[in-house]
Amino acid sequence: MEGEVLARELASLHAASWGWALACCGRDASAAADALQQAYSKVLEGKARFGGQAALKTWFFSVIRLTAMEQRRAIVRWLRRAPDREQQADDAPASSSGKPDRGLERAEAAARLSRALARLAPRQREVLHLVFYEELSIADAATIMGVSIGSARQHYDRGKKNLKDLLGDDLRTS
Fold first, then answer.
1. Which of 11, 26, 28 is nearest to 118 (CA)?
2. Average pLDDT, stretch 56-63?
3. What average pLDDT does this structure show over 87-101?
4. Which of 13, 73, 127, 142 has the least C-beta neighbours within 10 A?
5. pLDDT per residue over 15-38, tens digit each?
6. Angle, to 10 degrees, between the axis of helix 138-145 and the axis of helix 56-81?
7. Distance between CA atoms of 12 and 6, rounded to whole angstroms?
8. Using H for helix, E for strand and C for coil, what is the string for the chain?
9. pLDDT digits (tens, 9 = 90+) for 103-121
10. How big is the chain by its Cα radius of gyration, in Å?
11. What is the pLDDT of residues 123-155, one digit of tens each?
């Protein structure tokens, strides 16, 4: 695929790529932006090449996932070398004040879903994101995740069951 065509195709995937980068980076917007920028750089510099064995979206999502994993490893290495440094995290949720009741209900439902998703095993969370949010097949999700289709199916089935159980528990305790 030529550079201009590839750039145009990647631009059309940007919104979905951003969502996937967020999912790969634990919803950390800063880390997701870095991972996505590095993934684009890898492609544009020729360090990652599209071979056509899978759909472009499937291939690029793999590049994003691997880039995010590389970032995490680099951060872990850095933290191990500097154990005395304090790690600061800004986990303050956005305020939902001033929303109408329906908006508040949606925000609470989204928060319940986020909490439940966060409790899933990472591979279950990944495959559910790829299938439901990115509308990819389980086979494409398996390719992106670097696992067999049987393994992806198992993570998908277990993820759905666990998510249902978690959401049921969350609704019973609210």
1. 26
2. 94
3. 49
4. 73
5. 999 999 999 998 899 999 999 999
6. 40
7. 10
8. CCHHHHHHHHHHCHHHHHHHHHHHCCCCHHHHHHHHHHHHHHHHCCCCCCCCCCCHHHHHHHHHHHHHHHHHHHHHHHHHHCCCCCCCCCCCCCCCCCCCHHHHHHHHHHHHHHHHHHHCCHHHHHHHHHHHHCCCCHHHHHHHHCCCHHHHHHHHHHHHHHHHHHHHHHHHHC
9. 778 788 878 888 888 899 9
10. 18
11. 999 999 899 888 899 999 999 999 999 999 999
The closest of 73, 107, 109 to 93, measured between CA atoms, is: 107
Which among 57, 40, 33 has a CA at the least distance from the CA of 3? Answer: 40
